[in-house]
Amino acid sequence: MYNELKGKTAIVTGASSGLGKAIALRFGEEKMNVIVNYLNKKEEAQQVAGDIEKAGGKAIAVQGDVSVEEDIDRLIQSAHEHFGSLHVMMNNAGIQNEVPSHEMTLEEWNKVISVNLTGTFLGSTKAIAYMLEHRIQGSVINMSSVHEIVPWPHFVHYAASKGGMNMLSQTLALEYAGQGIRVNNIAPGAINTPINKEKFDNEEQRDEVLSMIPMKKIGEPEQVASVAAFLASDQASYVTGTTLFVDGGMKLYPSFAAGKG
């Protein structure tokens, strides 16, 4: 736990389920004020907000599409109006779908890039502008993926969005380090979230995934949330412009583990 986070305010996009939910709940455990953003799962988001309140934090659920500038503005305005400030921007919302690259339409490409990369750009820069205006030395945390460095056939739009997020975050970190604003990525590997449930429930597919993880186990959302809490805290006050991988070693070319090649 990080005592200095108590009473600080965070926005978590895509917080009605999965990693966003786990991070929002962890921020609640830290007694933070949380804007629980959702796209269309209102009841789930309200439940997350309620659980945050039960944990000792404060929360409200706010609808918004992260790829729409006006919606990002509303999230930040909600943080200011309800809690008086904004200290942490957690850009978590993201989408993916499998399409062979030569069959991918421009519409399919644009949809993923719009949410994953443009949404992160909007969330990051709008939060930074607020922090600069109010002289807040805050933390921007972007949810990337091992696929910011690991190629992923049939997911070229997703991999491109995460690769772009890597350079986006590094550039912003360099640009605003002098103002005390830190920008970092979290890059999960295979995590036990609802989006992966069908795959992990299939024994054959689960074994295939495990073969790509040196630690031979699937990660849990709470393990990612703990990294988010660290990056939000003063314990990470000298950490900026980096990606923290939470992947059980997936990025380490596990096929070489036996020393062959």
Automatic annotation (TrEMBL):
It is an enzyme of class 1 (oxidoreductase). It comes from the Bacteria. The keyword Oxidoreductase applies. Pfam families: adh_short_C2. Its EC number is 1.1.1.47. Keywords: Oxidoreductase. GO terms for molecular function: glucose 1-dehydrogenase (NAD+) activity; glucose 1-dehydrogenase (NADP+) activity. It catalyses: D-glucose + NADP(+) = D-glucono-1,5-lactone + NADPH + H(+); D-glucose + NAD(+) = D-glucono-1,5-lactone + NADH + H(+). GO terms for biological process: monocarboxylic acid metabolic process. Transmembrane segments: none annotated. PANTHER family: 3-OXOACYL-(ACYL-CARRIER-PROTEIN) REDUCTASE (PTHR42879), 3-OXOACYL-[ACYL-CARRIER-PROTEIN] REDUCTASE FABG (PTHR42879:SF2). Homotetramer. Belongs to the short-chain dehydrogenases/reductases (SDR) family. This is glucose 1-dehydrogenase [NAD(P)(+)]. It comes from Jeotgalibacillus campisalis.
